[in-house]
Amino acid sequence: MSDAATRPTAFLPADWTTATLVGRILTRAGPTPVLCRDGRLFDVSREAPTVADLMNAWPVEIAGRDLGSIEDFNFAAQPLLAPIDLQCVKAAGVTFAVSAVERVIEERARGDAARAEEIRLALRDRVGADIRSVVPGTEEAARLKAALIADGLWSQYLEVAIGPDAEIFTKAPVLASVGHGARIGVRSDSAWNNPEPEVVLVCDRQGRALGATLGNDVNLRDFEGRSALLLGKAKDNNASCALGPFIRLFDGSFTLDDVRAAEVDLEIRGPDNYRLEGHSSMDQISRDPLELVRQAMSEHQYPDGFVLFCGTLFAPTQDRDAPGQGFTHKVGDVVRVSSPRLGVLENEVTTSKAAPPWTFGVGDLMRNLAGRGLLTAEAAQ
Length: 381
Prior knowledge:
single chain; alpha+beta; Fumarylacetoacetate hydrolase, domain 2; 2 domains; 18 strands
């Protein structure tokens, strides 16, 4: 792991001195919500024992205990955790044209990476060009669907790419996400997988989008490619969801329009000296982020709020080993997801079996907060 895991200026947003940031650190006492304003870090656990409490009350006047300049804070001694706690972790899939085509390729290849390039060449020109130009759920999209069905090219992935209903699924259990600097896991029995660098919206219980962070929605292409019914095994595994480094709250200097225009970069450095770079532009998304939030909230409630992965444009096709095999992770890969206004999320790849086990659940958090005297009626309000 590089020094970006602990040196603040290496992972903070470029304009961190004016950003309003929310995160969690692991202190001797336990998980602790922190707020950064004007470059200074504050322990706000007395006023908001959980990030969910803070988000549901935001905007709120909150003092907190001054921990000093965030630039000088020792994150090696008190490491960053995922910047959320009780929020449900949701994800939207197939929200970019390129990723839609790649999902169709996985489906047709039945999870076999060796067949991917042949299918990709057969599909890309016809399907890729057309779905970039249509708005999901419109009459034009319905006409394209009819044409693709007639050509024998229709897929369940194209249904959610251009149909009226977005793919929204639950990515990880509450408290299971890992933060910046932690190891991230892929299933030990997966042979074709990749990172998914994404912008993640942070919403309160009312569905208000209050800010954004970076995420890595690890994807197992072989599992989901064999069957879409394996989505749970492909997406929800130990340490398979990374978020961070901080939530950047919307304010006068950072708005939802900055999310809509965000540029997300990916860098992978392998222990075999392999290097891969990718780039994702949020302005290429097929559905507006607020539309994804609306669909996530349409028939469900989230009393502690939720976060929503917005999907990725990145779908690695570069060969890593044998020609035609494409990309897949190796243990020891260092994955960096970055965006100038959101900072850097860096994690080292391991297997889900070898990653530190997830042992600190909701009951453990409640007992910890109660033991620290933080679960008062005043804090709960």
